[in-house]
Description:
mainly alpha, 3-stranded antiparallel β-sheet, 3 strands, 54% helix, 3% strand
Amino acid sequence: MFGLLREPEVKNSLDQEDYVTNRGKFYLFWNCIKTSGQPVLIALMAGDAAHQAETASDAEIVSGVTQELALIFKQIPIPMPAESIVTRWGNDRFARGTYSYVGATSLPGDYDLMAGPVGNLHFAGEATCGTHPATVHGAYISGLRAASEIIDDMLGAIDIPTPLVPASAKVDSLSPKHSTQKRKAEEDAGRDETEAAKQARLESVESDILKAIFNQLGYRPSKPGKPGSNPYLLYSKDKWAECKERCDEARRVATGNPRAKADRNQIRAAVGQMWREASDEAKRPYNEKTSSNRQANSEYAANFDEYLATWDEKAIDVRRRYVEAHREALSAEEEQKMWQALGVYGPVRRGNRVSRDAEDSGSMESIEGC
């Protein structure tokens, strides 16, 4: 953050009345680039300047703060902000421009006193946070504190053992009871590892099956989208870069700032003007492209259900042939569950596999490595 000391109306004046007009106007700037990821500055107003800002226009306030920044950073040109937000907390019916401040007769414990509950009524807000008063994060912290107090009132204090994690008790390794418990724990751990390995194997098999399906059929048909593009949108996409360069150049000439750039609204308006002034011949390829897109989309939409049913049927067939080619990958129970999950029952009967081995071995298509 950095501050701004305003000049008095009469240069080098020692009379406080000469400082009243500008006192508190843009007196402090917060650089929010680390928290927002964007080049954002917040300018603060105080005292009479804050009241004056309630009735001033956005353009007047933004122009004023930009001029002050230009006086501070004289070595570089300061452009107008790409976007601005002016708050008027005095007109906010929930705040009315108020927040806590430390008065001349305040005592160190006043914030804690205001934070204290009255019966089962608890208080939160920045005015109850002694460490971060008059801030949004102070209000948030106070809310956490009040919620904790309410939980304590309803449930009672939660005992936290010390140490939090007690040391394990030493047990005689020769104790039969200890040996039984240890063996049971090892068996449970072994079962957990087996289940984890099984899950990993099933996921690997499913991944290989999907790869085989996608390699042979491509991805599953997606649901048809909107009927087609607007010809203006196609035109805008083609002309945006060209129009942006023109608008940036016009902006640099108008401001005298070699680094000035036009905002998106200006560019969008310029592209719209170009489209309106374009000849029918210039618009023809975009209209034709739009008509072609709409026709293709309509045909796809009309046949989508058929495309989808055909793809699903072929995918089941690829899956069946993969399972036949990799019989060691799944047990009979695992395969049955797979088909049931897919809503398909009985595409492969494992009981008949052995009898079909001889006749299938020479005719079945191999999809190893899919």
